[in-house]
From TrEMBL:
Transmembrane regions listed in the UniProt entry: 21-45, 162-186, 218-238, 369-390
A Pfam short name: PepSY_TM
Keywords: Membrane, Transmembrane, Transmembrane helix
PANTHER family attached to this UniProt entry: BLL7967 PROTEIN (PTHR34219:SF3), IRON-REGULATED INNER MEMBRANE PROTEIN-RELATED (PTHR34219)
Domain of life where this protein originates: Bacteria
Protein name: PepSY domain-containing protein
């Protein structure tokens, strides 16, 4: 009997400390959790909404589809002349579906500036009919609502070098809150379990009780997806989280590093058709893929000069998980390396898939729907949680 009584006291103590942690951590980061959850939730169906709004730019008219597309270099020059931007065209995404337009990209980033708008110098998408050279549409992605939502979610629109920590730290706290929330939800016995899985409002008129149930029950159901979303988000924010995943999946703390190749034909004159040669070989090797991206300005995202010409092949539309990497000589267009998705290590495959898992797209449209509902619930938790605390505070005030 003593042991049983001692066990109850221990559980009560655990719940007591969990309640304190849950409350004070929630009050400290509630507003950030609300903003991050809402922005992430609104971003989930970005591809579906944009594809619908940009349908006329993405898909070519039947009468405009020719037999052979124009040279990538010629199309790039045409885009540069017509838009007359001070920055060079960064890349082109070529769809394997011949009814879809080419997408040329302008992207330039600065390390300076304390916020997103100062840091991103230019981010534009240019849709071009590859058969006629006609520019179908130009979208300024820097000011696009979904891109702004993405950077609010990532770092509250602060400089990406350190802005991620303003979200990363509250996300760690949110993970602790989810764990303490599950502890608080956990029923003591079978009788208590009945009211923990669904709403029983038949004779309940008090809004405080209904609000408590919304926080308690919806929070429980969303907590497991929320944990997955939080951890995959921390994978981007903190190297040690990524390294832990890598070690668990491969036994090594870091992903395999490829030896930096150098174009062997550097002494020869650059072939003007190098991009077309790379595109033709890519289409032959990965004919069943969705699209592929060719770097055009010879620099990586950090602005460092590339010694070769990299091409990224996407296996499925709207997914980044199935990626194949080809490396070409940037002068002659000769294929130097082919790294298909199926030959990657497990840790590398996960690294490619982490973004899709974080957004729910890895699990298809059903995954996105579940992630959207879970995101809405996470957005509501700081609100319902605050109202629970405020209701108890007012009640205590009346007693005094």
């Amino acid at each position: 009997m003593r042991k049983k009584h001692h066990h109850k006291k221990k559980v009560s103590s655990t719940k007591k400390w969990s309640a304190k942690l849950h409350l004070w951590l929630g009050l400290s980061v509630g507003i950030i959790v609300f903003i991050v959850s809402l922005s992430g939730t609104l971003y989930v169906f970005k591809d579906e909404i944009q594809n619908s709004l940009r349908k006329e730019a993405i898909y070519l008219k039947k009468e405009d589809i020719g037999k052979k597309p124009l040279s990538v270099n010629l199309l790039r020059e045409k885009v540069s002349l017509e838009l007359n931007e001070k920055y060079p065209v960064s890349a082109v995404e070529i769809p394997l579906d011949k009814t879809k337009a080419y997408q040329f990209e302008y992207y330039e980033k600065s390390k300076k500036g304390w916020n997103y708008f100062q840091q991103v110098r230019i981010n534009k998408q240019v849709y071009v009919n590859q058969y006629t050279g006609q520019i179908l549409a130009v979208y300024d992605e820097k000011y696009d609502v979904f891109n702004i939502l993405k950077y609010i979610h990532w770092g509250l629109l602060l400089n990406s070098e350190w802005g991620s920590y303003t979200v990363g730290i509250p996300t760690v706290i949110f993970v602790i809150m989810l764990i303490t929330g599950i502890i608080l939800w956990w029923p003591k016995n079978k009788n208590a379990r009945k009211g923990r899985f669904w709403f029983n409002w038949e004779n309940v008129k008090n809004w405080k009780r209904k609000n408590y149930d919304l926080h308690n029950i919806l929070g429980f159901y969303a907590s497991f997806i929320a944990l997955l979303m939080s951890i995959t988000g921390l994978y981007f924010a903190y190297p040690y989280v990524k390294n832990t995943f890598t070690f668990a999946l491969s036994g090594s703390w870091e992903l395999p590093k490829e030896k930096e190749k150098k174009s062997p034909d550097s002494l020869m004159a650059k072939n003007e058709a190098v991009f077309d040669l790379a595109a033709a070989q890519t289409e032959k090797l990965y004919a069943k893929s969705s699209s592929f991206r060719i770097n055009l300005n010879g620099k990586n995202k950090k602005g460092k000069e590339l010694k070769t010409l990299p091409v990224t092949v996407y296996g499925l539309d709207g997914r980044y998980s199935e990626r194949n990497i080809l490396t070409f000589d940037k002068y002659s267009g000769k294929l130097l390396a082919n790294k298909p998705h199926h030959k990657l290590h497990t840790a590398e495959k996960y690294s490619n898939a982490n973004y899709d898992i974080h957004t729910g797209s890895y699990f298809g449209i059903i995954g996105k729907v579940i992630w959207f509902i879970a995101g809405l619930t996470c957005t509501s938790l700081p609100v319902t949680g605050f109202l629970v605390w405020w209701g108890k505070r007012k009640k205590k005030g009346k007693k005094i």
